[in-house]
User: What shape does this take?
Amino acid sequence: MDEKEFKEQLLLAGASEEQIAKVDFEKMESIFDKANSIEDLCKVLKENYPDFNEAEFKKAIVENEKADGEALDLSDADLESVAGGSVGSWLNKNKAWLIPVAAFAAAGIGYGVYKYKQNKLMAKAEKLYPENKGEITKVLTHHGKIVGVEVKSDPIYLD
Assistant: This one.
């Protein structure tokens, strides 16, 4: 994902141009490339972005992993076992969705993290239920897995 796509994602999630201007995307990617752990990543993000909301960022990671059907404890040891390798490799493999989430948190956009997660869940639901694309109003989940959707219905008029 390039900088333009990141900015589009932030705008879709409700970020203002002013909030987006606070985020240096090249720097953000560099921070991710150098991170060896979630704690290290959060520390460096806080140093570079004073508005970084660590709690929202970690919550988004947990929620995403639940949506993907994986249990996740944010300790580095547990993350390594889930990732099947080092935390650094897990961060690198997942940075396509992690960087926008970190950008939301860095810009102090708590709702943006929620909205990004909701958009991602909706996109997964539309892939699972392509016949309902554009008509899904709610995604039904159970233990982090999509089990169904609610779709728009036409109103019924009674005489």
